[in-house]
Write a structure and sequence with these properties.
Layout lengths: L2 E6 L4 E7 L6 E8 L4 H14 L2 E8 L9 H16 L4 E6 L3 H11 L4 H23 L1
Parallel strand pairs: 1-4, 4-5
Antiparallel strand pairs: 1-2, 2-3
């Protein structure tokens, strides 16, 4: 069965999460450090697609709190365009991710995660929340 891949896109770091084969649960896969180079992300996604059957990319859209487009939202849309060009057989769904980073930090605080580690895993946890919000709407 096909899985869904959650993507918390960021210019410096991009969090990746994946569903189980039944599409019921989401777990963090990794954070890709790209430092502004989307080719690094696209190359890593191609490698992930060699290992997993993915039919949907669920990409978080970081709108402003009032629902308008943010600078990050515009950057994310440019990245989605690259995703569509490179992986045109995979469905791309956008979900509102306005509070995922806040939730990720709450979770890390509850788990007493070391501040140095927070930076590394915040994007992966955010990608899990993006994917979970998609699963919960289904």
């Amino acid at each position: 069965m096909s899985r869904k891949l959650g993507i918390d896109y960021g210019v410096a770091r991009t969090g990746i999460a994946i569903t189980d084969e039944l599409g019921i649960t989401a777990q963090g896969l990794e954070t890709i450090t790209s430092n502004g180079n989307d080719k690094i992300i696209l190359r890593r996604l191609a490698e992930i697609l060699e290992n997993y059957e993915i039919d949907t990319f669920v990409v978080g859209n970081p709108l402003n709190m009032d629902g308008t487009k943010s600078e990050r939202s515009i950057e994310t849309e440019a990245f989605i365009h690259k995703l569509k060009s490179r992986f045109n057989k995979i469905e791309i769904v956008q979900v509102d991710e306005r509070l995922t980073t806040v939730e990720a930090h709450k979770t890390m605080n509850m788990l007493n995660i070391d501040n140095r580690k927070k930076k590394q895993i915040a994007d992966t946890i955010s990608a899990v929340y993006i994917l979970e919000s998609y699963i919960n709407k289904k």
